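yo, Cofilin-like is done. seq:
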Amino acid sequence: MASGIKVTDEVVAAYDEVKQKHKYKYVTFKVSDCETKIIVDTKVESSTYEEFQSSFPNDGARWSIYDFDYKNREGQDRNKLILVSWCPDSVKVKAKMMHASSTDALKKKCPATKVQATDYDELNFDEVRERILTTSQ
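structure:
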């Protein structure tokens, strides 16, 4: 936890609601205004991938746990939990550094396949699917 920012119990509970209970399609997290903890930003019960992709702000860093449905190379339905680390180039340097140094702490509490993105193109469905296919089936 290089940044000293703590992952709240609320974040871990929201992660479990996506992973185990499938209550939400995705949950988004951010650094709190006091810059001491990672908190839940939004919880979305149902969403298309395009809606999820466009939900990230142009001017703010976020993380999201997303229940990603896709087909493997053989055409079989698969599902993978992904942790999106969203940090566009427009984010101020201090916020970028805080976001980057807090990502590992979040990944330890909320394990998932990490996807890093700085723009919407990097969150393209096919590109994310390809990244997953190179690491697992």
